[in-house]
């Protein structure tokens, strides 16, 4: 008959297991916090809408004749060869008009928008109603 050694755990074995549990629980907590931040950013409507607006706005920056922000910086006139495209704040949304006609909403739930142009780049600053602030610069080819 085989007799087992029934001494149990030693103090060093118990401390090693406790150390492993602490390390793994810390790693799990850190990865959960990272996942929560990523999930929040991925599902934030304003983040997604702003990135879509950036792609849309950039498509109008090619073959420009001139770029003119208004004096209050709440609108920008993009003069192309065949039309003038206006991006402006209208209430709590940003709209696009072509030759002062139409009304196409391009960004919603905004508190403030500012356009600046320094001869080489157009800078767009947007503050949303939830407090999120986004800014993007676009190089304007001549």
From TrEMBL:
It holds the Pfam family ComGF. The chain crosses the membrane at residues 14-35. InterPro entries: ComGF. This is ComGF family competence protein. Keywords: Membrane, Transmembrane, Transmembrane helix. The lineage of its organism: Bacteria, Bacillati, Bacillota, Bacilli, Bacillales. It comes from the Bacteria. The keyword Transmembrane applies.
